[in-house]
Amino acid sequence: MLDRLKTRARQIKTETFALYLAYRDPRTPFHAKIFAACVVAYAFSPIDLIPDFIPVLGYLDDVILVPLGIVLAIKMIPHEVMEESRIRAREIHDKPINKGGAAVIVMIWILSVALCGWVMWRIFS
User: What gap in Å lies between CA 19 and CA 11, rounded to an integer?
Assistant: First the structure.
């Protein structure tokens, strides 16, 4: 079972990288590029929307949200573009570092903390 999980994790990583290559392709529709860019940024980001140290919920985004986003993005991209991207992804083994995606997640956390602080200040002042 552990080997099967490792194999599936590698497949998801390859699909995510193929999605990264596909959203950069000029044949990909604009709406698919935007959605795919968001999915790839989140998947490659070192920071999660829900931190992994939170029991159960921390891994929920990695197990459900990322694969669901990948599936939806792949449905938006033309089949031939996705197939070419999968071939290229298998040839290239390096994962891109997406600092922009990490910055977005950090900004969401900062805004969430600021909003909570503001609400607490309004309630207790």
Answer: 12
